[in-house]
Amino acid sequence: xxxxxxxxxxxxxxxxxxxxxxxxxxxxxxxxxxxxxxxxxxxxxxxxxxxxxxxxxxxxxxxxxxxxxxxxxxxxxxxxxxxxxxxxxxxxxxxxxxxxxxxxxxxxxxxxxxxxxxxxxxxxxxxxxxxxxxxxxxxxxxxxxxxxxxxxxxxxxxxxxxxxxxxxxxxxxxxxxxxxxxxxxxxxxxxxxxxxxxxxxxxxxxxxxxxxxxxxxxxxxxxxxxxxxxxxxxxxxxxxxxxxxxxxxxxxxxxxxxxxxxxxxxxxxxxxxxxxxxxxxx
Length: 282
Description:
Elements: H1 7-14, H2 19-39, H3 50-61, H4 70-105, H5 121-139, H6 142-153, H7 157-182, H8 186-193, H9 198-232, H10 239-249, H11 253-281
């Protein structure tokens, strides 16, 4: 006998057994999302209003043709290089802060844990303080840090470098610590138990296993820092974003168009470079 002789059984086989759960999850998500949409006054239909479409067409018409004079392209090139410099210098300073904090937070490098499995109260307090410092650094967005530093040091790339250093220092420290904690600690514990220093245990026990993932995440954060440095330029932190903000205030759509094209190419180049590094790490 075949399934054709039992149409009801065949229908049962074709029915999704988890459809009720899918419906419940979908309705729950809609119920939770609806008040949030109302609170944010989310009205996407405004985009297709006649007045909005007219303003959009008028705004975009000024983008063509993009500005391409030699003098302006020279300015954009300098601003682009400054953006890359801000991201790279900021990430370098972030590493200076993140690496020591990572070593402090990492429990595998604590000699007090060997054998007893417990941490000394003083060491635990120091590690907890380091964790809270990482939370503080990464909880404040780089844009907010940039606004603060623009007030302190004035307009220019210095504010952007410091903003990236603080925020990314917290991000890198947290993720580095998680990567090291999730790696195999057998080699590290063996070195510590045989009298090795914590630095040597880290360099020869922990780091070799975690290095590819650490490098991959660092490259990804450098790519994010480039995008962030452009955004911070709108608050006066230098780079391509600051030039773009000046052109938008002067209603120079052709200049904005050129800088948008350069920004897209810059992000694409950073993404390609990061993929190349990740491919070489495999």
